[in-house]
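Table S5 (text form). Sequence records supplied for joint modeling of the two-component complex.
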Amino acid sequence: MNTERKGCRVKVSGYQMFWMISISSMIMFSYLPIKLAAEKAHQDSWISILLGSMIMMAVTWLILRVCKQNKEKTLVGFMKDLLGTLLGKIIVTVYFLHWFMQMSFLAKGTADFHNLVILHNTPMFVILFCLIVLVAYAVYKGGITAISRCAEIIGPFFVTVLYVQLFLNPQDMDMKRILPVYADSGWFSILEGAFRSFNYMVDPSIILMLFFFAENKQTVSRAILWGTAVAMGWGVLATLVVLFVTGPNLAAEMVYPVYSMTKFVSILNFVQNIDAFYIPLWIFGAFIKVSVCLFILSYGLSEWTGFKNWKLIGCIIAVIWLAFVIYSPHNIRISNTLKNMLLIGFFYPVVYIGIPLILWIIGSIKKHRRA
Amino acid sequence: MIRFVLLACVSLTLALISSGCTDFVEPNQLAGVLGTAIDHGEDGMIEVSHQIVIPSQLEGPSKGGGSGNSNPFLVMSATGQDVFQATQKIQFKMSRRLITNHRSIIAISEEYFRRNDVRKLFDKLFRDPANNLRDIIVLIKGSSAKEFIMLKHPIESLSSIGAAKELQINGMSGFSSRQFLIDSFLKGSRPLIPVLQIESLKRSPKKTDPTALLSGFAVLDHNLKIKGLLDVEEGSGALWMMGKGTYHGATVPWKNGIVSLRLTQLHRRISSAAGQDPKRIVLTVKAQAYLLENSSQRDMSEADNMVELQKGINEQIQKELQGTIDKVQRWGPDVFGIGEYLHRQNPYWWKSQEDDWDEKFKNIDVSVKADILLRSTGVSGAPLK
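The corresponding structure-token record, covering 756 residues in total, follows.
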């Protein structure tokens, strides 16, 4: 393998990949999509989420096809092969931008959430600094190996506890709250809900980079599909539970639905306020997701520029990233554009569906010609 | 060695920072708010009063519950344009940080309901993550809510805990502020909230104390305005018909005497009457009855008598509940959630009805059917002669 670099052993097992994918998808899912779907599709938002999940599963499958066609290279490498050096390099920057945005939205979301909920006086800088230094350290010291090992440890706790959380409100659940199915919203609203929310459920584009580091390509693609499926199943269940507990009108108002669910928990009037227990877990999840993004971003950039020391690039990005997240809140429009139609309607579909589809078609044609 | 020291320093600093030590407020710097009262203030202002526990005055079980003169709580109040501003004014007068995480009651005076838009009040409840949404919302009739939370409770250390326990122990659940928010968001259902009234209660030959007692339930319309009051008896019947009741007692006349029963396993079912006409609704209430008192001189171990009794209580309860429904229907607000039932059953028909449901509900034909199962007639057969 010619692209293998010093200090980065290309070894991520299927098991580790499963946890990495499921954590980073669930952390995304727990935040925005449920609200976006509920705003449009009300009590049918679970159908929207289900539809969105199916779209995302299909996208994951498509991206895996692309990866399998280009086993020996990362996204930057095979983009160059398929589209030519110049075009490939230009289009790959879209992904860099996307990962950077994901990183900053997540980091800012985490810091804001902590400031709002528990650490009222701690400056945002301190929270961010701790997170980013840790992430940069993990990436610098161990690269993908360290991240995947962390995911392996955190994953079982994270996934289990998040699933368990859904069943802690039995006394407040009323299944009738999702009725009547379909009649109120109609297919257009359901589709609109799916269209608005599917972009934020999972980020399959990270696979384009991660696949290259897999130990065994066959088992890893199965693990990735399973990881996505586990997260998607959780998402659909979580939406149903939110609807059961609060009904559609309240669900559409909740900015952090999964957090609110933990606030409602009251077991025997004794086990209450367990949200404090969940908050550290969400940080763990955010840590995995953000480190994966930082790793692929710095590794990709190193290939893009030809500058071999990707660790140094990682550190530089971390500094830029910290600065960006600290200064972006000064402009509310830059830091709160998640519901922007340009992003939802154009940017994400291109990143998730458009470009991978083109790559797949070109790859297939090339393969066909060679044969 | 140097490396180790450096590492230790860094991790210590990180541990201090990341554990949130910049923010820490020790438990002895906190003041727990257990009850909040909302009253009407002049000039569009709102008066907020917090009942705050004084931990050092709480009588522990070891002290033997001596009736000290000191209150285990204190009430602080202030007016403001909204809840936060008023609370902030209270905070300035406090030596400790107020926390509302463990609040058990929010009392709103009747006057506030009549003169203000209550919907505005609940934004803070839902937006601020410090609220738990498990607290109970009650309406205080006849006096200010502040007066209510200033009262002492004869048994519990705080009146707010007392009121919350009173409702819970008497099987009246489903009044949390979360439930209230859900109900008030729905188009086919209206909230019902408990009403407390201050009455003087004679506790010993010499002493008469004012105590807040449950005096009924308020029926609210879509804009959260009070449309009518039900007494406790009617209210608990209404709770049963809403599907929120958990315990109910019934005393009904039967065969030249009176019988009293404990009803458990309360359920209700709504269904459309024969045919597809959604305007004719049958509301079936179900329960299991245990006879606990009988002054009718009948031998209750006779199967014939049991059959008759079951028929008798069904008829009587049916009559009483029908009275409650007719009363609520005259006012308009659909606290029973019949609109929600119709919404689920006939969603397309509902679309033409959902606006102004309070008015349309008046013309719905709702009949109650009781389906009570007599499970036991107690541990004695014939009454003592």
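Note: The radius of gyration of chain A is 20 Å.
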